[in-house]
Amino acid sequence: MTMPRGGFIAMLLLLLAAAGAAGDTVTLRGTTIPLPGCEIQDIRHGRLYFSDSRGRRQWRDLDEVAALGFEELPNLDEAERLLAAGQSDAALARFLQSMLEADGELETLWLRVRLARVHDARGEYVQAAGHTAAVFMLRDEPSWRRLEPVSRPDRPSYPAAREAVLLLQQADRTVSDPQLAAVVDRLLEAVRPIAAELEAGWDGPPIERGSTISGYPIERIRGEAFDLAAEPNAAGAGETDAAPPGEIADHSSPGAASGDSAEAIDALLDAGRAADARIVCQRVAQRPGNRSLGRFLHQYGRALAGVGRRRDAAVMFMRGALLYDASASAAPSLVEAALIHRDVFRNRPAARRLAERAREIAAAQGDSTTVRRARDILSGLDDD
Q: What are the distances in angstroms from CA 316 to CA 244, 285, 297, 371?
C-alpha cells in the first residue's frame, strides 16, 4: 500500500517542522530526559507554566522541576550538564555567560534562581544573597522565601560583596511582601558588615554598578576563554571541584579502584574509619565516574565530619542537598547540615530551615527514618 503523494508531503512537512522546532525544554525530577518542544510561559507563585510540544498548557510545582532549557541559551544547557557531572567551577562560568545571553525576564529570573542555588551549594553565601535579592525583585511573592541561603556567611572578593549589598539595598527599598522583606533584612544584616570590612582593604579601581555578575567583571565573562579559577579578584578563585575549602586533593592514585565504590566508602564510614574514607573520597573526587553524586557528596561530608572538619563537611552536605535534591541522600544531607548549623555555627534559624526542608523531602520520598531525625531536631529547637 502506497501513501498518496499529498499525504507523504504533509507528513514530511510535519517531520521537518518538528525537527526544526527545538523550543524550550523542561526536565522533571526523577528523569534525565527533558520534555522537548516546550514554550516556557511563566513562573509564578511556586509554579512553572508552559505549553508542551502539542501546544497544551501545563503547570508543575517548581519542586518538581529539575532544570529548564531556553532555546536561545545554549550555555545554560552546558551549565546544567557540567553541574550534574560535579564540575561546579565550569558550570558556574557557563551560568554567568548565560546571564549575558538572556534577553527576557523569565530567562533572567531562572538564571538568578540557579545562581543563588549554585553559590549557596558552593558555600558562597554573599553571592547567593545577591542573586536571591534579584529574584525577590523580579517576583515579589512569598513562595521565594525558601531561596534564602543556608550556607555560612563567607568572605568573597570585594566586588562580589559590593554587588550583593547593592542588590540587597535595592530589594530593601522595593520588596513589599513581608516574608521576603524579613529575609532581605536578615541577608543585609549578614552581608553589609562583610562588604564594609572588605571595602576598607580594597586597593583596586572603583567598581561601577552593574559591571559585575557574582563579582566577576562582565567584560571578562564575555570572553570565550573565561575561566573561573583564573579570575584573580573573584571569590573562589583557585578552588577546584575536587575538595572543599582547605582540603588538599590526593593525586597519587587517579581513577576509581575497586575499593573506591560507594559501597566500599559506606563500609569504611560504618566501621568508624573516617580518615580512610576521606582519602578514598579525595581520590574519587578527581574522577567520580558513573555514580550518584548526591550520595557521594553525602559520604564525603560524613568523612570530613568524622575527622573533625565539620565546617567543611557542611559545605559538602549543602552541595549534595542543593544540587542533587532529588536524590535519596538529599534529605539526610540536610539533616546533617542542620546539626552542624545548630551545634557548630550556633545558627538556629538556618538549622530550623534545613530541618524543615529535610522533613518535607523525606516525607515525599517515604523516608520515615529521616523524617523522625528532622522532627527530633525541630522538637529540640522548639524546647530550647
A: 7, 12, 6, 21
Listed as own residue / partner, the contacts of 60-65 with beta carbons closer than 8 Å and 24 or more positions apart are 60/26, 60/28, 62/143, 63/29, 64/28, 64/29, 65/26, 65/27, 65/28, 65/29
Do the bridges between strand 24-28 and strand 65-69 make them parallel or antiparallel, or are there none, so unpaired? antiparallel
Q: pTM for this structure?
A: 0.70
| Residue type (1 letter), 139 | R
Q: Give the lowest-confidence range in 21-35, 50-64, 304-318, 342-356.
A: 21-35
Three cell numbers, residue 4: 498518496
Q: How many CB atoms lie within 10 A of CB 54?
A: 6
pLDDT at 225: 76
The residues pairing with 44 across neighbouring beta strands, listed in sequence order, are: 47
Query: What is the spatial distance between Cα 335 and Cα 125, in angstroms, rounded to a whole number?
Result: 19
> How much of the chain is in helix, strand and coil states, percent to nearest 5?
60, 10, 30
Nearest-angstrom CA–CA distance, 37 and 18: 8
Average pLDDT over residues 241-256: 39
Is residue 261 within 8 A of residue 299, CB to CB? The reply is: no
Q: Give the number of other Cβ atoms within 10 Å of residue 201's Cβ.
A: 7
Cα angle 352-296-132, degrees, rounded to a multiple of 5: 45
User: Residue 69: its pLDDT value, please?
Assistant: 93
Residue written as cell 569504611?
A: 268
Of 183-187, 193-197, 207-211, minimum mean pLDDT range: 207-211
Contacts of 322 (CB under 8 A, 6+ apart): 117, 118, 120, 121
> Which three cell numbers, joined as nine digits, stand for 342?
545548630
DSSP notation for 113-153: HHHHHHHHHTT-HHHHHHHHHHHHHH---GGGGGGS--S--
CA distances from 218 to 117, 207, 209, 210, 374 (A): 21, 11, 11, 9, 42
DSSP-based three-state secondary structure for 377? helix
Q: What is the mean pLDDT of the chain?
A: 84
Give the integer Cα–Cα distance in Å for 223 and 231. 12
Pairing of strands 47-51, 35-44: antiparallel
